[in-house]
Queue: 2 jobs
Job 1
Amino acid sequence: MTGPRDCDVIIVGGGPAGSTLAWRLVRAGLDVVVIDKKTFPRDKVCAGWVTPAVVDALALDLDAYRRGRVLQEIRAFRISMLEGPEVRTRHDAVVSYGIRRCEFDHYLLERSGAALEPGETVRDLERKGGRWVVNDRLRAPLLVGAGGHFCPVARRLGADLGGSERVVAAQEVEFPMDERQRAACTIRGDTPELFFCRDLQGYAWVFRKGDFLNIGLGREDNHRLAEHVAAFVEFLQARGRIPVDLPGRFKGHAYLLHTHAGREVLGEGALLIGDAAGLAYPRSGEGIRPAVESALLAADTILEAGGDYGPGRLDAYARRLQERFGRRADGRPANPLMPPGIRTRIGERLLGTHWFARRVVVDRWFLHQHEPPLATVREA
Ligand SMILES: Cc1cc2nc3c(=O)[nH]c(=O)nc-3n(C[C@H](O)[C@H](O)[C@H](O)COP(=O)(O)OP(=O)(O)OC[C@H]3O[C@@H](n4cnc5c(N)ncnc54)[C@H](O)[C@@H]3O)c2cc1C
């Protein structure tokens, strides 16, 4: 009988975090296996909006990427509080891109050059003789959890999955529009529309990517999420913005904002990246950039460790995360002392001013233009 296959690093999860780390480590000469419960291309509940920082960090060749895939350039936004006045912003350059996650994640995973174990759910994680053994099939001195919010490695490192964590819950639908639906849709591809909930606990969006339409809503308070989503769809339909027939059902998913997450990111010969570590930006919920950047910070640490992942050898990763994303688990609720009615009135007034919508909501909250590109230690 043959034993488990040996490799240098096992990465659980082939989303943007896992594939980015695999790409960097494979280029540095490590034997990396990525294991994912799904077979790619697979879908992921997501609006599919990526900022230019992601394109830079991944050194994406946009001309190569757009061949046969959706790459929607974004140059403007429409911002409002639901039922409130709207502000339109316009930008001189392309400020973001719309991608389809089934295409984007597949492209990155194939490009990584790692050995892939698709369609394999990680059920069993054992620590034996200073190495990790996964599902009795793979063995390595280093295990990386990149399995998203419900990552089994995060659970193994002590995360209370589905328990006490304060999550953002979101629902989304994405579908190709037929000719009749395209004619009934007044959403412009280069102009995503954002609608803040009146209690400021979340926001909804409608985003057209080529002939695909993506509609969704996410909230920090997940009570009656489906009702919020249904009301939003009705709101858009009543204004003749989207087709009256939406095929497919809304799909839900949860994730952690960095300021709310308290997950331990390091274990014995193990670390977490991306949503498994709970890194999404507060305000926008953007998680792809933190997933990619945490993977690059992990790659620096892993390559510096030079194959010895004993006590203290991975600590630099936690420090780098903190330097990049700030302190964690200090998640005070927004405006705790302000009565909801006043919060709504102030929010509506601010969101209705061009300066606030452009400089704060778009530039700061959604584009993170104040964050410089990530400087990694080792360029592979
Ligand atoms: C509705 C919604 C909209 C969003 N919109 C945006 C957006 O527009 N832009 C943005 O930047 N972020 C957005 N996000 C956040 C973003 O989707 C995540 O932050 C991002 O996908 C994190 O990437 P990841 O690689 O860490 O995890 P994931 O992309 O979740 O990948 C994890 C992988 O692990 C695999 N896996 C899980 N469990 C196991 C297991 N037991 N065994 C094997 N494999 C396993 C999964 O199959 C999956 O392929 C959105 C999130 C939601 C819910």
Job 2
Amino acid sequence: MPHIKLFIPGPTEVRPEILDAQAAWMIGHRMPECTDIIASVRPKLQQVFQTEQRVFFGANTGSGFMEAAIRNCVSKKVLNCINGAFSDRWAEIVVANGKENEDLNVEWGEAVMPEMVAERLASGEFDAVCITHNETSTGVTNPVGEIARAIRSLPNGDEIMILVDAVSSLSGAKIDFDDWDLDVLLTASQKSFALPPGLAFMAVSERAMAKAATVPNRGWYFDFLVLDKYLSKNQTPSTTAVSLMYALDKQLTDMLAEGMEARFARHLAMRDRTIEWAQGHGFELMAAEGYRSPTVTSIHNNLNIDIPALNKFLRTRGMFLSNGYGSKLKNVSFRIAHMGDLQMSDMEELFAAVDEFLAENL
Ligand SMILES: Cc1ncc(COP(=O)(O)O)c(C=O)c1O
């Protein structure tokens, strides 16, 4: 299969040395070699999540850990902050698990504001809030740190579980789990971590662990208490994705060698350049100023270009970007991901190719 460089918001481009790391000999998940890998990965994951709390990992995607968060942390009712297609998924998961849900709807392209959340929580009927840190459909980053501060300053703020989906931002955008006082912060391997799909990661607070112990019917596969029991022994309850763990261990080492602050700065620089390129052509952006994502830019197709034709052309140059997400945004927008291990030179290569297409098709 020819190499097509991915500028889509997941799965993202994976470096050859990370792909190669998966090809080591197989080991059993109860063998000491596997325990050693888990012991190596744990403190590195904590650094990436900026936490001293536990970080679970699982052979599942991000949606699995969204379900885990709901099953373990909700006994009353969830307030779901919705400003795009992915935050809508939280609501589906809550309802599918037989729990009560209420939506806080914000216009797509706008950010969820702390005072909106605080106002809705004042009724006292909620025990959890779900927020999507980075709306991959619109390219909006919600101010989760400020929202969390507003929640914690409510009279019952300490009883509210703050559940954050950072699937398309963690490790590409600064999120400080401990300082922001979050309860669950989850992500998946195939986005900013720049790994193949198949692993997910989730930091869980002491507050959430204590809450889980009181919530019935947590299931088994995603039960925080079961996950914690095994993690503390550097094990997993069931067979882990061993090959992906090899890749994870190497990628975490490389990420920390780059330095998290440098990694965040690289993402911001690629974001700024993407915005400059888009606006320079007269494109408008989906996301409101001040809340534009460090990892993905969603662009209004106000110049009416043929996005499938653009991608067909880009394929001939060995590249691919993303159409708008879902029926609401497809063809009326397109998305350029600048996440993971992509470099500015990759972005310039993409812009040059798109320019070539636009020169012939506008
Ligand atoms: C913000 C966000 N949340 C959740 C998901 C679902 O993640 P997964 O496919 O890993 O289950 C995605 C996938 O694109 C996403 O961007």
